[in-house]
Amino acid sequence: MTTPRRVFLIDDDADDALIFHETLKEIDLPIECLHYSDCQLVLHTLRETSISVPDFIFLDLNMPRMNGTTVLAEIRKLPAFHHVPVIIYSTSASPHDIEATKQLGATYFFTKPNGINALKEKLLKIFGMEW
Predict the structure, then answer these.
(1) Cα–Cα distance, 86 to 9 (Å, whole number)
(2) In what order do the strands lie in the sheet with 86-90?
(3) Does the pLDDT of residue 63 top 60, yes or no?
(4) What residues contact 98, with CB distance under 8 A and at least 6 apart?
(5) What pLDDT score does 131 carry?
(6) pLDDT band for position 72 (50/70/90)?
(7) What is the pTM of this model?
(8) Under a CB-based contact definition with an 8 Å cutoff, are residues 52 and 6 in contact?
(9) Sign of CA dihedral 57, 107, 66, 20
(10) Residue 120: helix, strand or coil by DSSP?
(11) Are 58 and 9 contacting, i.e. CB atoms less than 8 angstroms apart?
């Protein structure tokens, strides 16, 4: 039996999270996804030593109370997460956001696509890459 890939989704938008989860169900790969909508809670959780480090972190940029760039900077300060690909998954397509997150250590950036099929294609590509 193959060990499932662990994915953390950090996104405050419930509809986008639902679409992400539904798309993962359509992908023929064993994937376990934990969803966090509160950035402060996820950072607290990541700082816990007992948490299993995920294989991927998908991070939205535009969130209340704490934005994704701040969360990214904090994640990259945690030694256990240096090797984890952090994929920015945002409605933004701004070159400034792309460059800023790259400078902070984002591994990949993609704009949230319209529809499950486009998201499925993108996720299959990401899961198939050598990181």
Answers:
(1) 10
(2) 31-36, 5-10, 56-59, 86-90, 108-111
(3) yes
(4) 88, 109
(5) 66
(6) very high
(7) 0.93
(8) yes
(9) negative
(10) helix
(11) yes
pLDDT digits (tens, 9 = 90+) for 4-60: 899 999 999 999 999 999 999 999 889 999 999 999 888 998 888 678 899 999 999
Buried b vs exposed e over 91-130: b needs ≥16 C-beta within 10 Å?
ebeeeebbebbeebebbbbbebbeeeeebbebbeebbeee
How far is it, in rounded angstroms, from Cα 73 to Cα 70? 5
Burial readout 21-58 (b: 16 or more C-beta within 10 A, e: otherwise): eebbeeeeeebebebbbebeebbeebeeeeeeebbbbb
Domains belonging to the chain, first-starting first, are 12-128 (3.40.50.2300)
> What pLDDT sits at residue 29?
87
Residue 115's region, left for phi above 0, alpha for psi from -120 to 50, else beta, is left
